[in-house]
Design brief:
Length: about 280
């Protein structure tokens, strides 16, 4: 009897159905997002412009666009000096895609953004006379982030492309790029007094079975940036693409019901053993 119960318990272990392995890919693209504000004043959120996002499975191929962007954020008037942030562009195109029909054959995905005729300007004005604080223009900026799985290896890769980018601060040129130009990840074009401009900005994270890579063609941050009696805080993100990979595959794990059956089998085996010892006594 004891031997039969042990065999039954072992069979329960062997027949335990593994938890379903899940492979998911999520990709997202956004044209532009801004949350720049005067510290202590309400937030004015711009965007996200032309957002698109998908998640497997099944696979998908999604697109979004905006014909143009023309907006401004008023940053108040202090001692007669008015500050305004202008966010303008031509056509914006975003795309997100992934392959696969089930979690078992999902292996790749991508997100991309293209922003044309970009024009970002921070301007102050006193008695109607404008002063340029920050100017960033470009014929086009792009970012692409891809994810792929080959066997047991997962790769996330991001990159940005710039055409005729020009950056000026305080009316002086500080950085420029020609046609179809690339820079290294997290290239800092300017960083002074709480104003930072980063090109091909990338953020990566790896937590348990989830890996994420975010690529921003342009990232502009204001950190307590003092401007004529006010302090600016917030970020402007242009040309964002994101890829996320989630893989729970691994050693099979018995389902809770199978664990219960297995433990019950061991319990019966123990009871039978105690009964045999009692009969011998």
């Amino acid at each position: 009897m004891f031997r039969q119960i042990i065999i039954g318990a072992a069979a329960a272990i062997g027949l335990a159905s593994p938890a379903e392995a899940t492979v998911e890919i999520s990709t997202t693209a956004r044209g532009l997002v801004s949350n720049v504000r005067v510290v202590g004043q309400p937030l004015t959120l711009i965007g996200p412009v032309a957002p698109v996002s998908g998640r497997t499975s099944p696979g998908y191929s999604l697109n979004n666009s905006a014909a143009s962007l023309a907006t401004s954020v008023g940053l108040g008037t202090v001692s007669g000096v008015t500050a305004t942030l202008g966010l303008n562009s031509g056509a914006i195109a975003t795309a997100a895609s992934a392959n696969g029909t089930t979690p078992l054959d999902t292996t790749s995905g991508s997100a991309s953004t293209a922003v044309n005729t970009l024009d970002i300007g921070l301007v102050t004005s006193l008695l109607g006379v404008p002063t340029s604080i920050l100017s960033l223009t470009a014929g086009q900026v792009q970012s692409v982030t891809t994810v792929s799985k080959l066997g047991g290896t997962t790769s996330l890769v991001g990159g940005s492309l710039f055409s005729n980018l020009a950056l000026s601060v305080g009316g002086s040129s500080v950085f420029s790029l020609g046609s179809n130009a690339q820079v290294a990840p997290n290239f800092v074009a300017f960083n002074q007094n709480g104003l930072k401009v980063t090109l091909n900005q990338q953020f990566a994270s790896n937590f348990d079975s989830t890996r994420v890579l975010i690529t921003n063609a342009i990232g502009i941050s204001f950190t307590n940036y003092l401007l004529d009696g006010r302090s600016l805080s917030g970020t402007i993100t242009v040309g964002q693409s994101l890829a996320e990979f989630m893989d729970s595959s691994g050693d099979p794990v018995p389902e809770p019901a199978s664990w219960a059956l297995m433990l019950a089998g061991f319990g019966l085996a123990g009871a039978a053993a105690r009964r045999r010892r009692a009969l011998r006594a």
